[in-house]
Amino acid sequence: MDSISAMSSLIFFFCSFFYYVANSSTLGVNYVSPLLKVQERERAPSSVQLTAAYGVLNRLIPSHFSSFEFHIIPEEHCGGEFCFNISNHPGSARDGSPEILISGTTAVDILSGLHWYLKYWCGAHISWRKTGGAQLASVPDPGSLPAVQDAGVIVKRPVPWSYYQNAVTSSYTFAWWDWERWEKEIDWMALQGINLPLAFTGQEAIWQKVFKNFNISSSNLDDFFGGPAFLAWSRMGNLHKWGGPLPQSWLDQQLILQKKILARMYELGMTPVLPAFSGNVPAALERVFPSAKISRLGNWFTVNSDPRWCCTYLLDATDPLFVEIGKTFIEQQLKEYGRSSHIYNCDTFDENTPPVDDPEYISSLGATIFEGIQSADSDAVWLMQGWLFTYDPFWRPTQMKALLHSVPRGKLIVLDLYAEVKPIWATSKQFYGTPYIWKVTLLFFFCASDAVFNVIKF
C-alpha cells in the first residue's frame, strides 16, 4: 500500500469511538488541570512505560518487534498536549534497523500511534476477539514496511482523557475473565488510545476488610454481595444477595487479579478509575449500629419483590458513619494498591429513586459522598454516570443542580454515556457548568497538502 498516495486521497472519513469510549468536554479541561498536573508527576517512569509498550508490541505482532522503535516525549514537544509522532527511523536504510519510530507522551499514546500506523499505512485492523481480533495479514514483512512522509505525522488529543466502560460492564462482560483475558483487553485499550478505564475488579475483598472495621463479619456479607454476574447491581444498590454468596477463594483471587490489572494500567500511563462509597450498606450495619440513620430503597425489578433480594439499605448522608465508611474504603484501597489516579467512580441512585426530593437533602448527599472520598485523598475527583438523569424523571433541573453543585467545580465529572441517543448535556445547559465526558462520532479531515498533512487531530 502506497501510504502517501492512499492517505492523501482521503479527504474525509468517519470514525466512531467504540461502545462507552468518549472524549471529555473541552470546556471542563481547565477545571481539572490541577489533577492533570498531579497525574503527570505520578505517572510511571519513561523506562517502565516503554517496557510495557514493547510488551504490547511483542504480543500483538512479534514478527515485527524489531521493526519499530518507541520514545517517550514530554508534552512540550506536542504544544502542551498529549500526542504521538510517527516518522521514518533515521537508520531504516540499514539492514536489521528499526523502520518506524513512534514517539508519544505516554505508552498509551505510543501504542495508539502504532495502531494508527498499522491501520492507515498497512491496512490492518485491530478489534475485539469476538469482532475479528487482530487482522494483520496485510502488514508487509519486516524490512518492507511503508514509509511515512518525510515530515512525519503528528496526532494530538484535543482533550486529555478517552474513557472506557460503564459500571455494569463488569457483570455483562468481565465476570469470568482471568489475567490472560484481561491482559488482551488492556492491550486493546492501549492500542485504541483509551487512558481512562474503570478498574472495578476485586472491590468486594476491599469491602470485606472495610466492614470488618465496623464489626461486620464475612458471613454477614453473604446477604450483601451478589453473585459475579450480578455484582454490578449489587454494587449500585439495586439488589443484594442474588446469585451469591461469594466464596472466600473467589474474593481473594479477584483482589490478586485487580492488582495485576492496576499494575499494567499504571505501567502504560493510564488513569484507572477506582470505586467509592455511595451509601449502599449491608443489613447487618443496622444491627451493629442501631442508632444509625438507615432506610430501605424501593424494589428494583427484583423477583416477586422478595425482600431477600430487593429494597437495599441506604445509609443517610447526615449520619456520621457515612464519611467514616467512605474514608475507610478509599484508605483501604490505597493500602492494598499502593496508589491511585485520584479519580473515583460513585453512582448515587442509579435506577433507584431517592427517598426525598428536597434539594437540600440531595446536596448534602453529594457533599458527603465527596467528603468521604476527599478525606482520604486530597487530590480526589468524583466521576459519576449521568444515566440516572436519563432514566428517572425524578431528576428535574432543581434536583440535578443540587447534586451537580454539591461539590466544588472541577471535583465532579459526569459521564454522558448515552449521548449518541439522548444527550443530557444538550438539555441541561451542559450539566449546569459541571465538567462532563460525552460519547460522540468524530469527523477526521485530511488535507492533501503536504504542508499541513502532518498534523491531524482526533
TrEMBL record:
Residues 163-439 form the Alpha-N-acetylglucosaminidase tim-barrel domain. The keyword Hydrolase applies. Keywords: Hydrolase. It holds the Pfam family NAGLU. Residues 52-146 form the Alpha-N-acetylglucosaminidase N-terminal domain. Gene3D superfamilies: Chitobiase/beta-hexosaminidase domain 2-like, Glycosidases. This is Alpha-N-acetylglucosaminidase. The lineage of its organism: Eukaryota, Viridiplantae, Streptophyta, Embryophyta, Tracheophyta.
